[in-house]
Amino acid sequence: MKWQGPAWKRPLLLDDQWGRLAMPVESIRRTWNYAQLAKDAVKVRWSHDEKAQLAAQKLVADRLGRMRGLPQKMGQMMAFSADPSEQDAFGSLYESADPLPWSAIRPILQTAWDIDPDTLFQEIDPHGKAASLGQVHAATRHDGRKLAIKIQYPGIHNAVMTDLAAIGWLAKPFGNLSDGFNLEGYRHTILEGLKTELDYRQEATAQADFADGPGRSPWVIVPRVEQELSCENILVSEWIDGETWQEVQSQWSPEEKTVLGRRLLFWFLESLFEHGQLHADLHPGNVRFLRTSDGPKIVLYDFGSVYHMNVTERITLLRYIQATRQQSEAPLPFLVALGFRHELLEPIADRLPALSRVLLEPFCVDHPYDTSDWRLSERLNDLLGDERMNFRIAGPPGLLYLLRSFHAMITYLAGLDAKVLWCRALQSHVATHQHAMGQLNLPSLPTQDYKALAKHLKVQVLRDGQLKASVTLAAAAIDRLEKFLDDETLRRIKQERIDLVEIVRDVRRRGYVPGDVFELTDPHREVKVWLE
C-alpha cells in the first residue's frame, strides 16, 4: 500500500526485504550478547574482591552500552545510584555511549523528510550524543534557532522485542527478579511503555502535554517541540543545555544544592498530586541544571516514559501518607485500593503499620530529613524477615514507574546532601484535596491499625540512684539509637560487647512495639532504654 501523506511524515518501515533477511541474524547476535551479559552479571553478583567486582561492573556496563535499547536503559538505572562505586562503573551509559556515525544517520533524516537535511539547516553537528533508543544531534536553523534532532536507531524495534523475550532469564543474575512475582504483568507494562518510547509522535505529544502540566512550574524548563519536523522515528525540539549532574555535585555550593533539592521535591509532589504526571526516566542523561538570578532550574529531556496517575489513585495515596503521618487509619485498605494484592498482604497485615511508617518516614518527621538515615531496604528486610517478598511482589506492575521516579528523586536528594522538610512540601496538597480525601471510599477489610506501635523512645540515666538525664524521642529514633547515647554509655556498650545493631534489628523484627530495648547497670550508674 502506497503512503498517501506528506513524504516527511512517512513511517520508517522495518519489514522491507533487507529487514526480513537481516533481523533474524541480528536477533541471534543479540541473544548471544545476552548470554555473555548474563555471564558477566554473575561475576558482578558473586565477586567478593573489590577490584574484581569493579572490573566486572565495567565489563557489564560496556556490554549494556554496545547493545543499546533495553539493556542500556537497565544500565542507566544502575548508573543512577547513591553508591559511588556503581556510578564509576556504569556512569558512562547516560553521558557518553558511542553514537552511530553521521553517515548512518543522515540517510534516515533524508528518507523521513524527503529532502536533503542540509537545505533545512544552516548547520548540523555530525557528532551525535548517544542515548538508549536513539541519538541526538545539535542543529541550527537558517533563522538562528538552535534545535535538538533525536533520531531513532535503525532496527531498534526488533532489538527491543529480543530484549523483552530475554527479561525472564536475564533477570536472575541481577537478583532473582523472576521468582514469584507477576512477570507477565511486568513484561506487559514494560512493553506498553516501550511502544510509546519507540513512537516519537507519541513522545512529542507527551512532551507538549507535560509542558502544559508539570512543566508550568517556574523551576522547570521543558523544550518546545518542532511538530512540523517530528515523525515516528525523529523528534525535533528546542535546544536547551545546562550543567550536568556531575557538574552540580562537584561545582555547586552547599546553599545552591539545598535550594535545588527543595525545589526538586516540591516540584515532584506538585507533578504527582496536582497534575497526575511524573517523568519516569529521570536519570542524569535526561536532566540538566541551570543557575539563574531566580535560583536553580531543572531542564528536562526525553518524555517517552511519563507515568500517569488518575485522580482517585492520587487522592488515595495522599490520604495514605497523611494517615500514616498522623497514625490515624490502618494502611491495608489504602494499599489494596492502590492495587496491591490482598492475599499477599494478609500474612504481613500486623506489620503493615510499622512498614508504612518506615516506608513514608520522610513525610512523618517534623524536621528536615536526611535521606542517608533512611536505610530503607535494610529496615524493611529486618521488619518483614522471610516474608519480605510478599510486599515486594504484591504491588501492581504499573507502580514500577512511580517507584522509578520516586527513587530518582531520593537519589538526587542524597547526591545533593539536601535535607528538606517533607511534611511542609506535602501541606499544600493536603489542604487542596482535603474534601476529596474525606469523600474517598476504601474497601472494608479486617485491619491492624497503629495502636500497637510504640510512640516514643525513652532514654533514662541514673547515677547513685538519682535521675541525671531523661530524654523522650519519637519512636523512629530507635533506628539511629547510637546518635542519642552519650560517649560513656557507648564505651560501656563496647566493653560489655553488647551488639547494638542486633538489638535494633530485633526491635524491627518485633514490629516496633512497646517494650524494653536494653539496660546497663554498674554500682554507680544505670542506663535504661525502652519504647512506649
The best one-word shape is: elongated
Question: What is the helical fraction, as a range of percent?
Answer: 40-55%
Distance between the termini: 75 Å
Total helical segments? 23
Strand-helix topology:
Elements lengths: L16 H30 L3 H18 L1 H11 L4 H7 L11 H12 L3 H4 E4 L4 E2 L3 E8 L4 E7 L3 H15 L12 H15 L2 H12 L8 E2 L12 E5 L6 H7 L2 H22 L1 E3 L7 E6 L2 E6 L5 E3 L2 H16 L5 H6 L4 H4 L6 H8 L1 H4 L11 H9 L3 H7 L4 H18 L5 H11 L1 H6 L16 E8 L2 E9 L12 H9 L4 H10 L5 E7 L3 E7 L1
Parallel strand pairs: 5-9
Antiparallel strand pairs: 1-3, 2-3, 3-4, 4-6, 7-10, 8-9, 11-12, 11-14, 13-14
List keywords for this structure.
disordered N terminus, 532 residues, elongated
Describe this entry's structure for a reader:
Its EC number is 2.7.-.-. Residues 93-324 form the ABC1 atypical kinase-like domain. GO terms for molecular function: kinase activity. It is an enzyme of class 2 (transferase). With 532 residues, the chain is α+β, with helices and mostly antiparallel strands. Among the domains are: 15-100, no CATH class; 309-451, no CATH class; 454-531, no CATH class. It contains 23 helices and 14 strands. The strands form 4 sheets. Strands 1, 2, 3, 4 and 6 form a 5-stranded antiparallel sheet that branches. Strands 12-11-14-13 form a 4-stranded antiparallel sheet, with helices on one face. It is elongated. The N and C termini lie far apart (75 Å). The relative contact order is 0.08.
